[in-house]
Design brief:
8 strands; four-stranded antiparallel β-sheet; globular; 27% strand
């Protein structure tokens, strides 16, 4: 048995409401153990056997059946989440800067890694570490120069979800 986290993309925005109690019940009905949620932003912790890609497909299908809309699901092992949360590719982050972990659905190709790296500029910096991306915004997140179009151009056909590193660090302590 291993510990995993399922990150749900774009939930609790507008009409895409996903009550965490219902999401937890849905995962329990799949036979997953020790199901819990963390924050109200689509982070579900659980224990089971199996591999991440099979779990992603099963969880996504069950959640979409339960809620009636697309719910792209990104599953990472506890070890992967802890590695993402403890990496410091930018050194110490200034108090007025924002650090995100960006989780792509599929591992980045060499072309995607190059495109993501080339998104870096004086204001936003991106670093690929393992399967995921670290994204530093040298200001508040609302002041980024990298919007959805830039990410979609860099990663066409590879959906992503992002989490603030502060949340990921707190989440990692729960694993």
């Amino acid at each position: 048995m291993a510990r995993f986290v399922a990150f749900l993309r774009a939930v609790n925005l507008g009409r895409r409401t996903v009550p965490m109690a219902t999401a937890r019940d849905t995962l329990e009905k799949l036979g997953l153990d020790e199901v819990a949620s963390f924050a109200n932003s689509g982070n579900l912790l659980f224990t089971t056997t199996g591999n991440a890609s099979e779990l992603e497909a099963a969880i996504r299908s069950a959640l979409e059946d339960a809620f009636g809309f697309e719910l792209t699901t990104f599953v990472r092992t506890a070890k992967q989440v802890q590695a993402l949360a403890t990496a410091t590719p930018f050194g110490v982050i200034a108090a007025n800067h924002t650090h995100f972990g960006l989780l792509p659905l599929t591992p980045l190709t060499a072309k995607e890694k190059k495109a993501v790296t080339h998104l870096s500029n004086d204001h936003d910096e991106t670093v690929v570490r393992g399967r995921d991306v670290h994204w530093l915004i040298r200001s508040k997140s609302t002041e980024t120069t990298l919007g959805p179009k830039q990410w979609k151009d860099a990663l066409p056909g590879n959906p992503t979800t992002a989490r603030n590193m502060t949340l990921l660090v707190r989440l990692a302590t729960k694993l």
